[in-house]
Design goal:
Helix content: 25-40%
Strand content: 15-25%
CATH topology of the largest domain: Rossmann fold
Strand order of the largest sheet: 6-5-4-7-8-11
Distance between the termini: 56 Å
Bound molecules: iron/sulfur cluster
Number of helices: 11
CATH superfamily of the largest domain: Glycogen Phosphorylase B
Radius of gyration: 22 Å
Shape: globular
Order of helices and strands: EHEHHEEHEEHHEHEEEHEHEEEEHEEH
Number of domains: 3
CATH architecture of the largest domain: 3-Layer(aba) Sandwich
């Protein structure tokens, strides 16, 4: 068979984990040349070829930034590949409608912790940037839980923890520490992000944080006014153990962590349990979660809550004038509000607050509205 070269993916890490890696693992054969970040080697079926990554590292020296146009980067990568492997077929990932299986990456030894947090703060403007991770980390540690930080040091500044992924990484590797923590975690908390997809890939019990109920099934404004589809359904489908959304700030997420730590998880069918009480569950757990591939039923002493993942096709109504004024007043009194340019300092994107507060799909990154 003709040797193939898989050009490196240089976009968002979440798309790499959820879309590109499954495609590479499904399509590649031993002897193929794999492009990718050499620091992420354990995620790939073979060590990524550094000469294919060099043009990406030169174009995005501080990591991917959607503001920086790729220009002719793919053409340059093709030229490098053609030069080095003139007889090979050259492949680049492009969206298709295929559902590839979970990539069978080899997991390193687990590093046991109670809670793994995945702070996310990109160098570019993004409404996910301002989530109060340090406050959640402090609250977790006050409860006596051992806290680990996944991801990178740059995204976790000032978040207190017992152990950090980058301290567990071998030299020349920026992902093994995170994999060890995800593998050893009793629960992982992330946003709708690359580490969230990685947690679902390794079947770590996980909580995925969104501003409001329903956001996990919709598109939310993240960058410069553009709605981005949330991918909770994908995480839920991959995760064979437990994947639940949480909505709001640290106190709501703390309650969700507490539930996950105490939950007994059973496989469906959910319909058999919908009308029943928690007391009917064998062993009488404090919380039970009945799971199917595309939904979960959370059974609490006070009642049952069905968590669906199918996209909502409701069209969100534009906020009323009263709601717009309410949002604007919250912004004006918020320490993150920058009156000079009418922007939110927490998300830092160029979408002005006057527009943000009128949008049906925009959210306050701090969970205030
Ligand atoms: S209240 Fe307004 S300024 Fe403050 S964090 Fe929320 S969106 Fe940003």
């Amino acid at each position: 068979m003709t040797q193939r070269v898989f050009l490196p993916w240089f976009g968002h890490f979440g798309d790499l984990v959820r879309d590109v890696l499954p495609w590479i693992w499904a399509k590649s054969q031993p002897g193929d040349i794999i492009g990718g970040n050499p620091l992420h080697g354990p995620l790939y079926p073979a060590a990524p070829e550094p000469r294919l990554w060099a043009p990406v590292a030169a174009h995005y020296p501080t990591g991917y930034d959607y503001h920086v146009r790729p220009e002719a980067l793919e053409e340059r990568l093709r030229a490098v590949a053609q030069d080095l492997w003139p007889r090979a077929d050259i492949l680049a990932w492009a969206p298709d409608s295929e559902r590839y299986p979970k990539p069978p990456i080899l997991l390193p030894d687990p590093h046991p912790v109670d809670v793994v947090l995945a702070p996310r703060a990109k160098p570019y403007a993004d409404a996910k940037n301002g989530w109060p991770w340090a406050e959640l980390a402090r609250s977790c540690r006050e409860r006596g839980w051992i806290v680990g930080l996944a991801g990178s040091r740059a995204e976790s500044a000032n978040v207190p923890a017992n152990v950090a992924a980058w301290d567990l990484d071998p030299a020349g590797d920026a992902v093994t520490g995170t994999l060890r923590l995800l593998h050893g975690a009793r629960v992982v908390v992330s946003l709708d992000s690359g580490i969230g997809h990685l947690a679902s890939l390794v079947d770590a019990p996980q909580v995925v944080v969104y501003p409001q109920r329903g956001d996990e099934r919709r598109s939310v404004v993240l960058r410069d006014g553009h709605p981005v589809a949330m991918r909770f359904a994908d995480m839920h489908r991959w995760n064979q153990r437990l994947c639940l959304p949480a909505w709001g700030g640290p106190s709501e997420v703390l309650a969700a962590i507490d539930e996950v730590l105490r939950a007994q998880v059973l496989n469906g069918p959910i319909d058999a349990w919908k009308g029943r009480h928690l007391a009917d569950v064998p062993g009488r757990p404090a919380i039970a979660v009945i799971r199917e591939a595309d939904r979960s039923l959370v059974m609490r002493p006070g009642g049952n809550d069905l968590i669906e993942t199918t996209p909502l096709d409701d069209r969100l109504e534009a906020p009323s004038p009263g709601e717009i004024e309410h949002r604007a007043a919250l912004c004006r009194s918020c320490p993150h509000y920058r009156s000079g340019n009418d922007q939110c300092g927490l998300c830092g994107c160029a979408f002005v607050v006057a527009e943000r507060t009128r949008s049906a799909v925009a959210r306050c990154p701090g969970g205030r509205w």
